[in-house]
Task: inverse folding
């Protein structure tokens, strides 16, 4: 079945261009025979053109007032807002999260651009006293130059907005390579910036394969790289960046725990863990993929959670009543299914889901049932490895001490959630859980645009994202020792 689909193009030097690479096809993961977008990818020739355009455009862009750059972002935000319904449905069709989440994500991208659109109204540097009479010391902020942006499939418009927004507002030009599975939503964001009057060459969208990403990282005209995606790729990019001596910001894996203590409000905790584990089909780096329950509530909690997980309506993400869509691709389906089978082989007990759909309307899509698996005491892979799907691994703890120890038992440290009504325990969690983001009595996912986002331990490299934290990565400082021209 070939319905009407969008033509894939790249956006280079202010023009939409048809690439010279091989044809890429973006399909709907709920019905892979449905093509969402198709067309030739960009090749090395387009990357070369984009890098030259970005270099040429960057000084003029940086010379505008911060307020003028911000105004472009604010106008792009308005374009996103006015297209949120239509583009949100496209997002659901292309990526597989529900329509409500898709629309919400386009609106979130607008909110992020509005935040950075107002950057001109905030403090833009610092001034220190000098130990020498008649002198002041200023710390000013300057753009890095051309920033390479590499984004994942799972937030096809919000993550690009939270990287491209600050990159641009601080005066950088951008080369952007989105994940190959979501070219349509990338084109929508570029379209919004184009409609907002962004000067040609300042943002260049290169729809290409991972080879283009590698070439971008290696291109001497690129001054910094910001990346979100898998740990393996992030480390490879960070190594390549280090070899070239350029800064790399990498937001990588998570294996985020929700800890529910005996005194928690069970209804609240069940509802939040369900959202954390299964919203966006578990495909968030902040998703809840581990659950630690203290013994007193473990049985009650698991029976209520399992009942709610089994009742989730899994289906076509563009339908109104769907609560969970498919995973993004055949290869994700394969990896997650293999992870579930391995967990079973290693002794895990499946207490919800644990399967795909061999029959019925879901059989042709990449659907996996909401899955909850209780682990024993051994070192199972499901406790350690990020599966990036709707799979929750559960362990029991004798007391709070053990619960915190289990929550910290990961090389990752992106986010965690703690459920308790006891302020003392909540404060202990703040001190003891080694994560970049901690939710007290709410799900492990979610990120507001004005506060730092990023992980501890091996979840992230380089400065945090979002809010003022983003300035640390997208600018460098010049410390100015400032005296008048006359001797004092
Ligand atoms: C969220 O929790 O809403 O790739 C955002 C990711 C994260 C973003 C999470 N960088 O899933």
Result:
């Amino acid at each position: 079945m070939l319905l009407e689909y969008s033509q894939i193009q790249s956006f280079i030097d202010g023009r939409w261009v048809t690439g010279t690479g091989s044809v890429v096809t973006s399909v709907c993961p709920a019905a892979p025979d449905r093509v969402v977008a198709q067309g030739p990818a960009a090749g090395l020739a387009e990357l070369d053109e984009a890098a030259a355009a970005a270099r040429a455009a960057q000084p003029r862009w940086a010379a505008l007032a911060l307020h003028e750059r911000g105004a472009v972002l604010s106008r792009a935000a308005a374009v996103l807002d006015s297209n949120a319904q239509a583009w949100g449905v496209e997002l659901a069709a292309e990526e597989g999260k529900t329509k409500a989440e898709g629309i919400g994500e386009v609106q979130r991208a607008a909110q992020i651009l509005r935040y950075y659109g107002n950057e001109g109204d905030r403090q833009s540097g610092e001034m220190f006293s000098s130990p020498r009479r008649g002198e002041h010391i200023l710390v000013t902020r300057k753009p890095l130059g051309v920033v390479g942006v590499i984004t994942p499939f799972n937030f096809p418009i919000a993550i690009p907005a939270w990287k491209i927004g600050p990159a641009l507002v601080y005066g950088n030009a951008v080369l952007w390579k989105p994940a190959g599975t979501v070219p349509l939503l990338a084109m929508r964001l570029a379209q919004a910036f184009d409609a907002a009057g962004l000067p040609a060459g300042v943002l260049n969208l290169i729809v290409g394969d991972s080879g283009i990403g590698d070439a971008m990282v290696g291109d001497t005209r690129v001054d910094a790289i910001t990346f979100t995606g898998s740990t393996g790729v992030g480390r490879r990019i960070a190594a390549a960046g280090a070899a070239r001596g350029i800064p790399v910001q990498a937001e990588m894996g998570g294996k985020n725990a929700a800890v529910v203590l005996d005194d928690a409000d069970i209804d609240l905790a069940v509802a939040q863990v369900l959202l954390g584990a299964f919203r966006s089909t578990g495909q968030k780096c902040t998703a809840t993929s581990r659950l630690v329950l203290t013994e007193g509530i473990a049985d009650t909690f698991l029976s209520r959670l399992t009942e709610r997980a089994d009742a989730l309506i899994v289906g076509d993400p563009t339908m109104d009543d769907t609560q969970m869509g498919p995973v993004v691709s055949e290869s994700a389906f394969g990896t997650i299914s293999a992870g579930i089978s391995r967990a079973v082989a290693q002794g895990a007990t499946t207490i919800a889901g644990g399967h795909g759909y061999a029959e019925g309307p879901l059989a042709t899509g990449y659907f996996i049932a909401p899955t909850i698996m209780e682990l024993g005491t051994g070192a199972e892979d499901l406790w350690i490895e990020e599966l990036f799907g709707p799979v929750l691994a559960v362990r029991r703890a004798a007391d709070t001490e053990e619960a915190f120890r289990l929550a910290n038992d990961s090389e990752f440290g992106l986010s965690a959630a703690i459920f308790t009504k006891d302020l003392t325990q909540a404060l202990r969690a703040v001190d003891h859980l080694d994560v970049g983001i901690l939710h007290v009595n709410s799900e492990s996912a979610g990120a507001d645009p004005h506060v730092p986002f990023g992980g501890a331990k091996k979840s992230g490299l380089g400065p945090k994202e979002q809010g003022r934290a983003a300035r640390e990565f997208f600018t460098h400082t010049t410390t100015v020792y400032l005296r008048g021209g006359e001797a004092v």
In short: The longest strand covers residues 31-40. The CA atoms of residues 120 and 371 lie 46 Å apart. The two ends are 81 Å apart (CA to CA).
